[in-house]
Amino acid sequence: MTLPFPRRGLYAVTPDPEDFERLKRQIRTVLSGGARVVQLRDKHGRLSLAQVEELVALCHDFQTPLIVNDRVDLARRAGADGVHLGRDDTDIHQARKILGPEAIIGISCYRDLAWADAAARAGASYVAFGAFFPSPSKPEAAPAPLALLRQARRALRCPVVAIGGITLERAPEVIEAGADLIAAISALFHAPDLRRAAAGFARLFPEPKRR
Fold it and tell me: Which 8-state DSSP code applies to residue 206?
């Protein structure tokens, strides 16, 4: 069963895997720290189908969706909850046709609000903007202004994800600007204490008080 995309919280984006067992331990740790969604990046195809299936099962143990970056085929075969698509990846309509109506489909919109609006209208589950700060993972990324998040929050109904150089110290101003979720790679997976880092981000998204 496909898990739903969260409305708020920490969006953990994995570094490209070099050691599967280490990656699995890292994912378990950030999940225990409070990550609400995991995006698996495997740009070089190092992971086997069985390994991806194992990571999907791990995330589901925490009731957390796992999304595959770029590869719609792998997402379908591994039983992942969805896919994240960039500028040159599969068309959103084709991805939806392959993965089904309940699948999570996220779109990288960089700094283009019109693109995000079109993606939302086409059925995107969420849109992502960035980079908002210099990013160790994508140093070539063009900077996006925080004002873009304010505009997106007013214009879009789907969740808005912010990514790119967002540290624990910078995250509050990004959330204040309108981000529903904070995506982190280096600030999370390169932290000395992954669980502590994840918990720090998670605390920025307190649960709403019950009446």
Answer: P
C-alpha 38/C-alpha 59 separation (Å) is: 8
Which run of H or E residues covers position 196? Answer: helix 194-202
* Cβ–Cβ < 8 Å for 76, 105: no
Verify cis geometry, omega within 30 degrees of 0, for the bond prior to 199. no
Sorting pLDDT into bands at 50, 70 and 90, what band is 90? Answer: confident
- State the CB neighbour count (10 A cutoff) for residue 211: 3
Question: 């099962």: which residue's tokens?
Answer: 57
What is the C-alpha to C-alpha distance for residues 202 and 55, in angstroms, rounded to an integer?
A: 21
* Partner residues linked to 181 by β-bridges: 9, 161
- At residue 208 the predicted structure's pLDDT band, cuts being 50, 70 and 90, is low
Residue 182: pLDDT band (50, 70, 90) is very high
Q: What is the dihedral of CA 147, 148, 149, 155, to 10 degrees?
A: 120
- Please write the tens of the pLDDT for every residue from 157-179: 999 999 999 999 999 999 999 99
Class of domain 9-202: alpha beta
- Could you tell me which of 211, 188, 201, 64 has the C-alpha nearest to residue 135? 188
pTM given for the model: 0.95
Measured between alpha carbons, how far is residue 158 from residues 6, 16, 116 in Å?
A: 11, 28, 10
Provide φ and ψ at 171, rounded to 5°.
-55, -40
Give catalytic residue positions: 41, 108, 138
Q: Which is nearest to 56 in space by CA: 45, 69, 67?
A: 67
